[in-house]
Amino acid sequence: MNCNELFDVLPIKTIEGILPEQVTDLAVNSRSVNAGGAFVCIKGFTVDGHMYAQNAVEAGARVIVASDRVDVDTERVAVVYVDDTMRAIALLAPRFYRYPSKEMTMIGVTGTNGKTSVSNMMHAILRHIGEKSAVTGTIGFNLDGVLFETENTTNDVLTTQQLIRQAANANCSTMTMEVSSHGLLEGRLAGTEFDIAVFTNLSHDHLDFHGSMDNYGHAKGLLFAQLGQDLEKKKFGIVNRDDLWGERMKKMTAFPVLTYGIHQSADFRASDIVLSDKGTSFHLESPEGEFNVSMALIGEFNVYNALAVIAALYAKGIQIESIIEGLAVIPAAKGRMEKVETDLPLTIYVDYAHSPDAIEKAIQAVLPYKGTERKLIFVIGTGGNRDRLKRPFMAEKASIADYVILTTDDPRDEPYASILSELEVGMQHDQYACIGDREEAVRHAVAVANEGDIIIFAGKGHEDFQIIGKEKFPHSDAMIALEEAEKKFGHQVREQ
Ligand SMILES: CC(=O)N[C@H]1[C@@H](OP(=O)(O)OP(=O)(O)OC[C@H]2O[C@@H](n3ccc(=O)[nH]c3=O)[C@H](O)[C@@H]2O)O[C@H](CO)[C@@H](O)[C@@H]1O[C@H](C)C(=O)N[C@@H](C)C(=O)N[C@H](CCC(=O)O)C(=O)O
Ligand SMILES: Nc1ncnc2c1ncn2[C@@H]1O[C@H](COP(=O)(O)OP(=O)(O)OP(=O)(O)O)[C@@H](O)[C@H]1O
């Protein structure tokens, strides 16, 4: 891109050296600088990108954007000095990628729980009805069926613009993004123009970062505020009417807001809900009349997710009949109450619940068909060095299960003992075990199960690793559980 055109977007303090005519690339990581590119030095939580300016020059950068003095040869490279490089990249990235979000319908999904589920359901339905679609979030970046790994739920501003440009170039009609509160507060969505903002719910999580529920709720609301002020555009907010924070989200935008819910009156309302182990059906009241909806996803929480999906895709202009047809055939998002296929006499789910509300909802999903004979075993892990306040509340909700195994998900640098003791405070009955090593915890769950029992492994979901210390180790709840269950029950099945 032409340098004058690119840097014209910045309030520049000084330029040392001579700006080249063009830059080929933008980078915030010295390790991904390409020859002829520009490197922006970001001060992070861990390191200061200014330390890597010389590495960037050696990798071929022609321009460095910095706020602090950098010791580089200005005969070789131009240095653009600004007040704040984080704000600079927020302006440079969308300009460099030519404001790609304007070329598609952009749907942002925020809330404590349900972001991955809702956004992947929308993506799957759009593809089912023949539209090209992209989605980014905790599972990665899915470009019309091809999955790429990403670092964050909501990526840094540069990666975000790169991914949106990729989706636009691939002629996607829609890009759905999971929008985290961290992403909103840290400006990772600068330059992303959303058309539809969806709010799922708000409950206790990430208070280590936000300090209070009020701050956390405010951060989520920024997605609605970021719908902008150009009221001539057709934009929509979608909010959960049964969640007290829904009203607050609504107040953050002047655009029309469609509501959904089960208990309160709403534009999209579900009633006559039938929950089973095979799936869920409900009656839908909508602005277009009444419909029957059925889907293979289990649990009342998925009724909320389905309502959010229906309202958002309706706002995009898709016929409700087509959305319902899509809902009938799509699978659960990976690792979200995902049933592990087995002919062994156990029902096993892998789930990503790691907040008190999600744990309650995951357990409630199986209660309607569990009966009194079968035991529900719930394995709950929490991460080390992260929100400690939620731990007892997680165990309190887990206590709804008959037998609970308290363990870790990514212990990081925190000792097992401190994680487990803080969880244990919340237990409401004595039918539980504390086992820090997750593999051992999974094996124990199968060891205590009887034929017909249900086990939910919560906390790791789609992830196939565990972070212990600073390292990632391969880990799969499903594989360990199946191996153990095969040893325990396999002969029974084979002999039949
Ligand atoms: C606390 C936090 O937000 N950290 C984010 C932050 O990392 P950081 O500030 O530590 O980065 P850093 O390592 O100090 O690097 C600073 C700069 O130096 C550069 N650098 C670094 C090394 C080098 O050799 N060369 C170089 O140029 C880096 O590229 C970067 O530009 O910037 C990184 C790049 O954007 C993010 O990946 C990282 O997210 C970490 C992984 C994280 O765990 N974040 C969590 C808190 C988070 O954001 N979570 C939410 C989901 C919440 C939910 O579940 O709802 C999310 O959206 O993911
Ligand atoms: N609408 C919902 N309400 C409450 N719990 C939900 C809802 N949808 C999913 N869950 C539960 O929360 C877990 C996480 O769901 P999902 O990954 O969709 O949420 P998320 O908002 O993307 O979470 P995260 O930010 O942690 O990635 C699921 O595994 C399920 O147990």
Keywords:
496 residues, alpha/beta, UDP-N-acetylmuramoyl-L-alanine:D-glutamate ligase, Protein-Tyrosine Phosphatase, Chain A, 3 domains, 11-stranded mixed beta sheet, 6-stranded mixed beta sheet, globular, binds ligand UAG
CATH architecture group name of the largest domain: 3-Layer(aba) Sandwich
> Main β-sheet: number of strands, strand sense, barrel status?
11 strands, mixed
Tell me, rounded to a whole number, the average pLDDT: 94
Bound molecules: ligand UAG, adenosine-5'-triphosphate
The total count of helices amounts to: 16
Please name the CATH topology of the largest domain: UDP-N-acetylmuramoyl-L-alanine:D-glutamate ligase
Instruction: State the fourth-level CATH superfamily of the largest domain.
Output: Mur-like, catalytic domain
Structural class: alpha/beta
Note the beta-strand portion.
Answer: 15-25%
Net shape? globular
Main sheet strand line-up: 9-8-7-10-6-11-12-13-14-15-16
Domain Mur ligase N-terminal catalytic: 26-97
GO molecular function: UDP-N-acetylmuramoylalanyl-D-glutamate-2,6-diaminopimelate ligase activity
Organism: Sporosarcina saromensis
Pathway: Cell wall biogenesis; peptidoglycan biosynthesis
